[in-house]
Amino acid sequence: MSVVKINVLQVPEGRGEVLEQRFAARAGDVETVDGFESFDLLRPTEGTDRYLVVTKWRDDEAFQAWMNSEAFGRGHGQQPPSSGEGGGHPGGEGGGHPGGEGGPPAGGPAAAASELWGFEVVTSATGQRA
Ligand code: HEM
Q: Which of 26, 64, 75, 77 has its CA 20 to 30 A from that of 97?
């Protein structure tokens, strides 16, 4: 069964739009990665103020391979995390510059902190419009 990896992003007030635009600009990047199944960037509306990047992979190996790939480094400021489950927080406070176009004066990372959650899919159902 697939695995779900969720990157939990703490985004300071007013930075959400920048974050969303950066993800939108890169949404296509992972689509061709081996073992990648899906990703959703979720904007908080209730119960939390953290954004979730919910990703789904064929298995843990596929996810780890992507995390350690150059493609990930390119999209995440050349700082692939050391490794492993639950490590989760490659950048530490502030993370790194996500690279690419950047953009003044909001050039740095929009996310102030992040945390990785990992899950195995146990049961799934999908609606017709999913
Ligand atoms: C579970 C898998 C993922 C992990 C562990 C992860 C890790 C991170 C971390 C730690 C940050 C904050 C540090 C930084 O801003 O550089 C971040 C930001 C970012 N990630 Fe990911 N990421 C994941 C999935 C994705 C996916 C699938 C995409 C592609 C659509 C993506 C695109 C981005 C972008 C554009 C930012 C910059 C946001 C900002 O300005 O702060 N990430 N990611």
A: 64
